[in-house]
Amino acid sequence: MLLLIRKEVAAVNELDEEKLKHQQQKGLTALNQEFRRYEQVTKDQSYGLSEQRDREEFDDDFEIKTCDLGLWLHGDEADKRTFANDIGAAMEDIGFAVLTGHGIDVSLYDRMADKVAEFFETIPMEARAPYMAKRQGSVNQGYFPIKQTSIIHPDLVEGWVFCRRAFDLDGKADFRPENFWPDAAYEKAFREVVIAHEKLILPIMQSILSYLGCDQHLYDEKLSATNFGFRLNYYPALDADQRATGGGRMLGHEDVDLFTILPASRQQGLQALDRRTNKWIRINPPYGSIILNTGDYMQRITNDRLPSTTHRVSQPVEDMSAGEPRISFPMAVYVWEDEILEVLPGLGAPKYAPIRAEDFHTRITSKYYGDDYADD
Question: How many Å apart are CA 6 and CA 13, to the nearest integer?
C-alpha cells in the first residue's frame, strides 16, 4: 500500500521505491550547489540540505528585525515611510522580518494550530489517498506523506498544500470543496486565516516597492485575488532514534514565491542562513507575530537586491519539545501562471530576462519533483 501511495504522488513520478530511497539518502549529505542547474536566480551560498551536527556555525547574537505593520496600516505618511524603511532594510539585510501590529488576533492562530493537528491526527490514510500531491498550474498541490515532500531529502514532516483554487474565495458557481478536501468543513475553517492573511498581501508588497523607490501600486492588479500556496505542516513527535541522528525536520531551501507569511510556531526550530557569514540564525519570535521572508520571485524582480534567503526547520533544542508535534501553516504568495516576471524599473541593468511565472516556478521546483515536472 505504501508503495502504491508513493507512486501516486506526482512529485515522485515513476521513481520506484529503491531509487527514491537511494536519492533521498544521497540528499542527507548533499550540498545545495549540486542542484544549481535548476535555479533561476543567483544563489552562491553553499550549505548541506540536511543539518550537519557539529559541522555548522551559529550566530546567536543576530536578531531578526521586528517591524510594526500597524504603522503602514493605520499611520500617516511619515509612519508608512518608517515601516517601509524598516521592512525593506530587513529584507535586504537577511531576507526575513518579524511583523507585529498586523491586526490578527492570536486566538485565530490558536484555533488554526489546533485544526492542523486535528486534520493530520484524525483523517485516515485511505481518505488522503485520492488527494496525493499533483501539479496544478505551477504548484504541486495536495497531500505529501512524511519523507515525501521532495525526492531529494526525506523531510520529517507531513504536508498538505492548498492553493487559491481550493478555497471558496471568489464566488465561483463551479467550486467543489470535495475536489480538494477530504472533509469540506476544513475548507471553511482554514479559509478564515487565508482571508486574514490575504488582506496583508498588498500592504506588504506596497511597502517593499516604496522602499525600492518604485510606484507602490505597481503590483496591485497582479496581487488582487492572486494565487498562493497555503501549506499545512505537521511535524510528528521525534523518537529517540530520530533525535540521535541530529538530522533536520525540513531541508534547507529557499521559497519559490514573492514572500511567505508565516505565523510564529508554538515550537522552535526555524533557522535562517546568513549568506554573508554562512552562519545559521535561530528565529524564535513571540507567538502571535508573523515571520515574513522573501523568495525567488522577489529576488528575480528586484535584480538580486532582496535575496531569497535560505532557511530550514531543525530539531528543537529542548528534549521536552521533541516529544510534541510541531505545527505551522505558511502562506506563500505567488502571481498567476501567465504573469511575466521582469526586473522592476530603477534597479539597474536587468540581470534577468522577462520570464513567464509558470516557467520560472516549475524550472526551479523540478529539483524537488523530477526533471519532467517543468514539462507537464
Answer: 9
